[in-house]
Design goal:
Strand content of chain B: 25-35%
Protein name (chain A): Allophanate hydrolase
Radius of gyration of chain A: 20 Å
Number of strands of chain B: 13
CATH architecture of the largest domain in chain B: Beta Barrel
Distance between the termini of chain A: 51 Å
Strand content of chain A: 25-35%
Distance between the termini of chain B: 43 Å
Structural class of chain A: mainly beta
CATH class of the largest domain in chain B: Mainly Beta
Number of domains of chain B: 2
GO molecular function, one term (chain A): hydrolase activity
Largest sheet of chain A: 7 strands, mixed, barrel
Largest sheet of chain B: 4 strands, antiparallel
Radius of gyration of chain B: 18 Å
Number of helices of chain B: 4
Strand order of the largest sheet of chain B: 1-2-4-3
Order of helices and strands of chain A: EEHEEEEEEEEEEHEEEEEEEHE
Organism (chain A): Streptomyces regalis
Helix content of chain A: under 10%
Strand order of the largest sheet of chain A: 12-19-16-17-14-13-20
Pfam families (chain A): CT_A_B
Structural class of chain B: alpha+beta
Number of helices of chain A: 3
Keywords (chain A): ATP-binding, Hydrolase, Nucleotide-binding
Oligomer: heterodimer
Shape of chain A: elongated
Chain lengths: 289, 205
Amino acid sequence: MSDRALSVVHAGALTTVQDLGRPGHAHLGVPRSGALDGPAARLVNRLVGNAPEAAVLETTLSGCAVRPRSTVTVAVGGAPCHVTVDGRPVAWGAPVRVPAGALLEVGRAMSGVRSYVAVSGGITVEPVLGSRSTDLLSGLGPPPLTDGAVLPLGRPAGLHARVDVAPQPAPPAELVLRVTLGPRDDWFTPEAVRAFTAHVFSVSPASNRIGLRTEGPALERALTGELPSEGVVLGAVQVPPDGRPVVFLADHPTTGGYPVIAVVRAADLPAAAQAVPGTPVRFVAVRRR
Amino acid sequence: MRALPVGDDALLVEVSSGEEAQALHAEFLQRRTEGSLSVREIVPAARTVLLDGLADPARLASELTTAEVPPAPPRAREAVEVPVRYDGPDLAEVAAHWGVTPHEVARIHAGTEFSVAFCGFAPGFGYLTGLPPRYDVPRRATPRTAVPAGAVALAGPYTGVYPRSSPGGWQLIGTTDTVLWDHTRVPAALLSPGTRVRFVPVGNA
């Protein structure tokens, strides 16, 4: 392999390759996938002069450590964390030069869940249906990182980063998700619909890239029986038989048979991706635009 | 026809049967090809078609509410043939449900022309319809933790072929060597909504 590559020293709990995902294939049962905190992924790409569609690393709580074989520029954003190069602290949220063979360590998230690591040139694993994203539901795209894996890097695009450092939203202490009700709110009792927007839920540790699971009052159905499978969108709030709402994130199934009580505004989903287990969650009903 | 708003830029269009959903899906595809419908995803399902990524969902919703479900489209191109060994572990149970012999299950199933109503569950997994309602079968009471790739299976009104090994609760009636999903192939999915399918018995059937 050429020297444009990244060796994985510590993969961390779950580190995946992510880009903008593969929308447009839902009718074949293919999830869209892609970085859960899209704005953070786009920002770190900009910081290293990559195009927005370049693939980055998405860590989960525990960080990761990688060693580039050639000198690269990297930027780490999303969940704030300590970043070091050969043990020396460097900036988070800013472009950093990492010499060939040096060890880049992305620390445990100090708040939030997912940090993003952009490397100049982008990670150029083989795309699947136009995307390099790992899809944990269907298994498309590259497998999650493992210790010792080697990831190919592209040639730097030569774009000049127009920012040296950029403000990023702090991970939420309380997650407020604006929702529009429906399409299946009529499958729930009026009390359940009220409880959905009146109660405070909390983020369940069972959350993942497929969905943000919640704990809280069970939402009672007015209609029992099975809903024939229907298409579901990103941000759909599906209520399985246990009554606890699940907010669908990027790796969500394309069709589902549990009623969707509401849909979260797309702009609020990046914050959902950064909400640690135990974070209070409120659903606030808003009017459709 | 009902058009239910979904979030800010999607509509779930609900009709009263699977046939109507397939006809509507074909109509939306046609409109997108002609350029009169701008939409990111068109996702048919059992009784609905989801339109995701619409510029003006409210306008389309009011148009659809007064529209008639279009007639079924003319038959799509040639049927895809899927060779099957009718050797599934649930063949006898399905035969008992149908009140026929296992051999008859194979004959009836292979004598039916199917059409892909929709996809889901896994990339390339199609929900195929075509069997008369009297041949509906329940899912297994206890799902299998691993169904092999290529398993031909029944549940409710549907036939499906597992594109890869996965857990599953469908009744397994046979096996095929046909590759349902290969992301290096164009198209990656052998079966997509609207595809006609025939199962051709091979081997011990």
